[in-house]
Amino acid sequence: MLNSASLRLRLLAGAALTVAIASPAFAAAATPTATKDTATVAAADPVPVDPAAPVTADPADQTGLGEIVVTATKRETNLQKTPIAINVLSSQALTDRHVQSLYDLADGAVPSLRVATFEARQSALTIGIRGIVPLDANQPAREQGVGVYIDGVYLGRQHGLNAALFDVDRIEVLKGPQGTLFGRNTEGGALSIVTKGPSGKWGGSATGGIANYGSYNGTLHLDLPETYGVALKLDGVIQHQDATTKNPLEGQTGFNYYHRRGFKATARVHPISGMTADFSYDNGYDSNSPFYSQLLNVNPNGCKAGAQSASSACALPGTNYTTLTGTVKPLPSQVVVNGTSRAKVADIGVPQQPSVDKTHGFTSNIRWDVAPEIELRSITAWRGVNATQYDNSGGYHRVPVVAAGCTGTACNFSRYSLADLHQNQFSQEFQAVGTVGQFDYVAGLYYFNEHISDDAATPNSLAFNSSLTTISVLDPCTGSGGFGSLVGCRSIDRASEVHSKSYAGYGQVTWNATDRVHLTAGGRYTRDEKQGVLHFSRNLNYDTATQAQLTAAGYAPLDATWNRFNPMATLAYDASDTVHVYAKYATGYRAGGASSRTSNYQTFNPEDVKSYEIGAKTDFWNHRARLNLAGYIMDRKNSQVDISSIQTTASGSFNNLVTINAPGITKIRGIEADLTVQPVDGLTLTAGYAYTYTKIPPVLIASTGVYQNFYIVFTPRNAANGSIDYTMPISDMDLKFHLDGNYSQATQTFDQFATKNDPAFIANARLALANIHVGGSNAVTISAWVRNLFDKQYVFRRDPSNSLPGAPTTNLTSGSVNNVLGDYGNFNAPRTYGMEASVKF
């Protein structure tokens, strides 16, 4: 474990390196011929730029690294002069990595950005930055810790985030709290997706490809000429992959399957001089199945009945059992244990149909240059997602465990996790952006209204006979203790409904005191209102239940209001035209809520974070090299942590998840570095590194009186990546080569368990022959790509809950081992490869 002295030394070393690089001596040595870059967007002299403008080369040096335009400060600025730690993934970078959805960024395209799929389906993503990663934000009354935006519109749910990406110009990864300009639930940062808008000129592109596992993909982007003052752009996309792990039950869906499609239409008009109005509509369809959950080992902690001290490793965190009861049952012969390699075929066939997420949205984005000093903007959006979940990926690898000689419902197994969620949101944001003298300013008002309802059931779907020699499929309506998986036949574990409203006003001003010194200060006031109710819990209808039943459950509806003011301040100094340093203080907060996975609808409070950051952004070697560094300290108060357990019933099982606020201060410390070098024309090398230290103070569990350690999930201590891009002209064509490698250390999956996933190293590659001119101006590209080049296999999600005694209910001194089985987990996707052809017209 890294001690505090070692941590301080690393942070001080990073700070010293930052200061050294920012020194005038370094700047003079690095840029002997440095001149004023007239094409650079400087904070003191802003130049309006289309936020979807492509990366362009510096006109003063066509052989150098190009300028990158970002909108992280609600205005168009040069990445290298924006005092925020940002990574930008351009459309070309996404193509080179064959990124079709946000989950494809889980391999580590940005070291401090972590993306993980929800166990039950691929369409719900957990997204974290700098150690701000919620375990379970799938609940209607639970919020994310990183804000995800598409063209300035906040997406309220993580459901549907893995939909197919449309014509993306770039993805901006803003690291650190963005509470002032972006608002609540951006403690760790923001992921801003910027798509390409209409140009008013004829053009477009089409792409088609095939790959292994029966995969195919296609895109069509049409940019139509402006007609009667209206410019129209149409985007369509389709992506398909067959299952990578086969389901032996005939007619049932395998695992890691997906079929996505989507459509978007955008119209741009200019109603009056100086005004641009974009109106867009999009919808998406994502049919998918979860990754297969394998049994990795059997009773790894040596659990057995008797004194708990005799099985010292068989200890459930947060408890102080003195006695272990029950029996660890032997495995049926049909069950396969495999913790070293990805299964190609599941050991037991299970009922499985695809989960389906449907997303839709309408956005109005209006920009009006009222005067040289002010631009007014209005962003209006209606969005929604409907998610239907079917997850039977565990088979016998999850509880309940069956014993020989069983009868009736005791022979049932294979938990089928079913859920429905319906969400609609409306948001309205007004912005005023401009420059007056030495002052750049941003001001805004924001309103957000969200309604969500959900329900869930987890019946068993299979049954053994008493001798465990044969397996039968249970009746889908009545086979699981009188219930089943069909709609209308389910025992409802939970059903809830939540209404959320958020109001905010914000402002930020940058004083360009001199050509080199820039002082920024800002703040945001937010008022959140949240009302929620449980309609069902454990198949009890709370709408018709007696007061005695509700009192016995300890139930109370959620009715809460929170107010926050989130300030920020930044001091930026341009040490030279190519060296920029900054010191930043920023804050953020994540709203509170209630857990619908508890029978009492247990509430939890918001969490707040303060961040202190120093950074340097440098260009040197005559614009052929770029090094950006950041070091930060974040303190989070009232961290929301989760305690999860599966509890069995006669009709199936349910997931009991309690969210609590950890007392004290959670410490998050880190250093980040990004290097880009162009040693010769056509060759670009990149490298990135993120060091992240996290520590949550031990939490006293009130029900047991035991202190328990908690962990931040999916956050490696060390993560790094690198890439090679080479373009070689061949006649009037270009041969392009791309290779990237991405490494991360092992991470936890659950807040409550120290058990870690495997470390990972994933490489991706692409070879393309581009700019093949066909039919005049049409340019064709033919490419071959591969993801997970070396077919590395690692467990990205490991669940030890089935290896430990059951969670306490009323008896706090005795724990049962009746459902001890083993760790189970999910392996990453296998190597995929294919070919594509695209044409621009």
User: What portion of residues belong to β-strands?
Assistant: over 45%
Q: Radius of gyration over alpha carbons?
A: 27 Å
Portion in helices: under 10%
Largest sheet: 22 strands, antiparallel, barrel
Short synopsis of the structure:
With 841 residues, the chain is mainly beta. 5% of the residues lie in helices and 50% in strands.
Describe the fold and architecture.
This protein is mostly beta strands and 841 residues long. The protein has four helices and 45 strands. The strands form nine sheets. It has a 22-stranded antiparallel barrel. It has a five-stranded mixed sheet with strand order 3-8-9-6-7. A three-stranded antiparallel sheet has the order 15-44-42, with no helix packed on it. The longest helix is centred in the first third of the chain and has 19 residues, at 4-22. The protein is globular. Residues 1-62 have low confidence and may be disordered.
Summary keywords:
841 residues, mainly beta, 22-stranded antiparallel barrel, 5-stranded mixed β-sheet, 4 helices, 45 strands, 50% strand, globular, disordered N terminus
How is the secondary structure organized here?
Layout: H1 4-22, H2 24-30, E1 69-70, E2 77-78, E3 86-90, H3 91-96, E4 113-117, E5 125-129, E6 146-150, E7 153-154, E8 168-175, E9 189-195, E10 203-211, E11 215-223, E12 230-241, E13 258-269, E14 275-288, E15 293-295, E16 306-307, E17 323-325, E18 355-371, E19 374-391, E20 412-415, E21 417-436, E22 439-457, E23 460-464, E24 471-473, E25 494-512, E26 517-537, E27 540-541, H4 547-553, E28 558-574, E29 579-590, E30 593-594, E31 603-604, E32 607-620, E33 625-649, E34 652-680, E35 683-695, E36 699-701, E37 706-708, E38 718-730, E39 733-744, E40 760-774, E41 778-787, E42 795-799, E43 814-816, E44 824-827, E45 832-840
Parallel strand pairs: 6-9, 17-43
Antiparallel strand pairs: 1-2, 3-8, 4-5, 6-7, 8-9, 10-11, 10-45, 11-12, 12-13, 13-14, 14-18, 15-44, 16-17, 18-19, 19-21, 20-23, 21-22, 22-25, 23-24, 25-26, 26-27, 26-28, 28-29, 29-32, 30-31, 32-33, 33-34, 34-35, 35-38, 36-37, 38-39, 39-40, 40-41, 41-45, 42-44
